[in-house]
Each structure stands twice: as C-alpha cells, then as structure tokens.
Predict the 3D structure of the following.
Amino acid sequence: MKTIFVTGTAGSGKSLLTSKIYEYYTRNGAFAAVLNLDPGVDSLPYTCDIDVRDYVDIVSIMHQYDLGPNGSLIMANDLIASKIDELQNEVDRTNPDYLLVDTPGQIELFAYRTSGPFFIQNLRSEEKANIFLFDGSLITSPVNFVSLSLLATSIKLRLDVPTVNVLTKSDLIGEKLKDVLSWSSNLRTLEEAIAKEADGETYSLITNVLRGLNLSGFAQGLIPISNVTGEGIVNLEIALSRAINLGEEVED
Ligand SMILES: Nc1nc2c(ncn2[C@@H]2O[C@H](COP(=O)(O)OP(=O)(O)O)[C@@H](O)[C@H]2O)c(=O)[nH]1
Ligand SMILES: [Mg+2]
C-alpha cells in the first residue's frame, strides 16, 4: 500500500483533488481508497471508505467540553492521533494499492500541532508521499507567494515524507500563472518582483530569508493544476509516481 496525504490551507482544493486522484487511479485499474481525516467537514465530493467522523464527533465534543465551534475543532484535530489504531485497522482491512488521505482545513494541525505529524509518521504503509497545495487564488502578489512557500517549508520539515508541491485553481488565475511559475523556478525573478512591490526594509528581510532557504531550489517543480478543467492532473500523477514509486508509473 502506498499512502498519499493531501495537505494545504483551508479551501485550497484538498477534497476536490482527492476525488480527482481517486478517479484517476480507479480509471487506471488500481485499487484506491479514501480516508477522510477532517472531523469538521459536512459534505465531501467523494465517498469515503474510511472516515474519522466515525470516531471523532464535533457536536459531542462541543457539548461534553462546553466548547464553541473553533475550540471543538481544535480538540477534534488533536483527537485524530488518539484514533490511529482504529483507523489503521480499517485501513489494513481495506488494504488498497493507494490510500488517499484528505486532511482537515486547519493547517495548524500540520504546521504547529503534534497530532498531524504523529499521524502521518505512524500510519503504517510501504510508501508515503505528501501533496502540498498552494492555493492559486491566494497568490495575489510575490510577497504572498513567499509567505505561502514559508508555510509549505514549515510543513515539509515537520512531516519528513517526500512532498510534491502543487498550485491549484490554475483555471482562475489567468495571466498570473506565468508569473507564479517563474517566481517558483527562478529566485532572481522573484526578487525582482518583490523589489517592485515592497519597501527597502521588507525587501531586505524577504531576500535574506529567501537566500537562507534557497527557496528557488525548494519550490522548483510547482505543478499547476485545475480540479475543475482537469488540466495538469496527469503531470501531477507523474510527479507523484516518482515520489512514491521511484519512477514506476501506474500502468494504463
Ligand atoms: N475553479 C476552481 N475551483 C476549485 C479548484 N479546486 C477547488 N475548487 C473549489 O474551491 C472550493 C474549496 O475546495 P475544497 O476541495 O473543498 O477545498 P479544501 O478545503 O482544501 O478541501 C470548492 O468550492 C471547490 O469547488 C480548482 O482547481 N479550480
Ligand atoms: Mg476539505
């Protein structure tokens, strides 16, 4: 079994992409299954094979601990790790070729809290990979792009699994797509774009951070996709196969 985690900010397209990857593998004759790890979600664009909501119930948490919706979501996210044995049993019983894990919108789970990385590191699977989604609609400026890349870097260093970086909603951003791809592959282009927008102090802070992180090397290979038109999904599959199968692709 190979496990693919889909992470990214709230609304970046995780659930919809999960459904597209599921369809892709199924169409190609592989046995794929979906694990929904989001305890707070109402409706999903796919049928879950395994669902954390069977074990963690937001409404009972609200009542039991007298919490509001935010507090109970945070608590529910922390409880995910404590349900790993139950979820692992279901995963083992299902035993798919590809397990797709759709994750909660609260990115803190992976950026800061222990529960997210614990779950990813301790779920037993032959191979694991993470897809991190850069939400195309959030990249309205080069500074925003850097900010999102820093978040992606924080998560990558905490998860310690091969990561594929994806830019979603390519259908919505028009001309900006070209800019974003050039920022992600060429540090100089990114610095020039920032120089036009930021004042001296911000510019020097950002460029120092970028050089320290060698962001251009890190963000290289940002794959643009649209979950709506299907554009780029095949490229994503190729990158994903490389990450999890060491180059062996799903057979047609
Ligand atoms: N136009 C467009 N909309 C998208 C794309 N991906 C997701 N969406 C929409 O963005 C919203 C959030 O998507 P969802 O998959 O629920 O995001 P999640 O919170 O990360 O799981 C939904 O209304 C989706 O239909 C995309 O590539 N293009
Ligand atoms: Mg979702």
In short: DSSP finds twelve helices and seven strands in the chain. Residues 2-140+156-171+221-245 form a domain with the Rossmann fold fold (CATH 3.40.50.300). The chain has a mean pLDDT of 91. The two ends are 19 Å apart (CA to CA).
